[in-house]
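Entry 0007
Protein: MarR family winged helix-turn-helix transcriptional regulator
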Amino acid sequence: MEYSHEDEELANQPVGYWTWAANKTLTAYVRGRLAAIGITQPQWWVLHQVLHSENGVTRAEVIRAQQANLDVGAGLAPDIDLLVERMLLVLDADGRLRITDEGRAMHQRAAQTQRASRRHVHAGIPDEEYLITLKVLQRMIRNAGGDVSLG
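Output (C-alpha cells):
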C-alpha cells in the first residue's frame, strides 16, 4: 500500500483529520451500498433493532437506543414513518413497531450488503491490526475526556 506520507511525517499528522476522513469516506461507502438496495443506513438500524426485539419497540425506544449512532437521534422519526409506509414495519394497537415479512426480507438483504461492505473495507487488514486501531482510538478518546462506552 502506498501511504500519503513517509512514516516520520505520518506520525505527525493530526488524528482528527484522519478520523474525519475515514468517517466521511466509510459512511459514504456504506450508505451508498445500502441505497443501492433501497434503504438508508438509519433505516437499517431501525429494522435491525425492531427485528431483534421480542415484543416490538416504541418509536421513543428506537430513537433513544439510536441516539449515539452518528448523532441521528430524533431525526429517525421520518425514517420510521417511511418504513411503516413501505410496510416493512407495522405499528400494532399498543403503539409498538413490529417487523413484517417484507421487512425481514429487506433486513436480510441489508445484512448481506453490510457483510460484503465490511469484507471489502477490511480487505488486507488482519484482525490484530484492526483491534489495535480501535484500542488506540479508544485510548485517544479517553485521553481527550470522551466516553468510549456504547451507551
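Curator remark: The beta strands are 89-91, 97-99. The two ends are 36 Å apart (CA to CA).
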